[in-house]
Amino acid sequence: MSSTRTGTRGETVPTVPSAEPAATPAGSADVPALLERGRTLATPVLRAAVDRLAPPMDTVAAYHFGWIDAEGRPSDGDGGKAVRPALALLSAEVTGAPPETGVPGAVAVELVHNFSLLHDDLMDGDEQRRHRDTVWKVHGPAQAILVGDALFALANEVLLELGTVEAGRAARRLTAATRGLIDGQAQDISYEHRERVTVEECLEMEGNKTGALLACAASIGALLGGADDRTADVLERYGYHLGLAFQAVDDLLGIWGDPEATGKQTWSDLRQRKKSLPVVAALAAGGPASERLGELLAEDAKSSDFENFSEEEFAARAALIEEAGGREWTAQEARRQHTTAVESLDEIDMPAQVRAQFVALADFVVVRKR
């Protein structure tokens, strides 16, 4: 297991071992190619679905996805990492089906994911996403809510209009994942108003908020390809633990990430008083730094001037989190969850190349800057 860097903001976090050479046929684990395949196959179907929305929701959604700018001109905006579509297409190949079989699942998962982003940005007061003003900032809160609701409805429509038994099974799992995602967001909001949250509570929240939908993405293509429930369950377990690893890295980037890479403010999660894993782990660690951090955060919760804190004040809190061990613990947790995700793949048969690609995607999720 390789080490984790703990230096200045903007560094890559955390490192993990690559797949064993024997499990990785040459040229089979090209992650950029997997991500691009997901975008190439899913985007036309995604755009066609969004085009069904009534005006102005179609335009607002197109802005959110980066297809147009705030004035309605065509744009080459950053559409995100595209991990979920890549997983959906790859999971179809577990069953021997072509990746195209997973396209409706990839689109449905992307629609649900973006429904959650639209609502999360509004609830969290985030003004920037993917280096642009968020939808609620440009088009207003009402449009952010309505377009989010519309994307959720479209997700089920895209699946159910296939009219197959496999699509019905996929839709049931997507609905359950969406309910888990909403539960996680509710937990996240409630934790912001509590002085202390346990590590177990934080992991449960993040498993709901991030793990549930990645679990669905990792299995939905296989379901559309006719996989049995056992195969889908194993792929969901891979995706769930991958989601926990993904969120642990997000939590690190939410405090120490480079704004140029993340598209968010410096010390973003600290500004929002988020009880993310580094904060919760630091508070649970004990010792002088942990105690001082607890005192400061308790004072912050009562402060009427919190929004005007200086960079130095947020930097001081981040330093205490690191001194108390919260940063290192979270990096280790990302590696633990990564290992659990990868090991789960051994429970089912799949082509060696497909397994290598699942492993490569897991490595990509845990080693990134945004």
TrEMBL record:
One Pfam entry name: polyprenyl_synt
Q: What Gene Ontology terms for biological process does this UniProt record contain?
A: isoprenoid biosynthetic process
Keywords of the record, alphabetical order, are:
Magnesium, Metal-binding, Transferase
Xref: InterPro entries: Isoprenoid_synthase_dom_sf, Polyprenyl_synt, Polyprenyl_synt_CS
A molecular function (GO) term: metal ion binding
Q: Which family does it belong to?
A: Belongs to the FPP/GGPP synthase family.
Official protein name in the record: Polyprenyl synthetase family protein
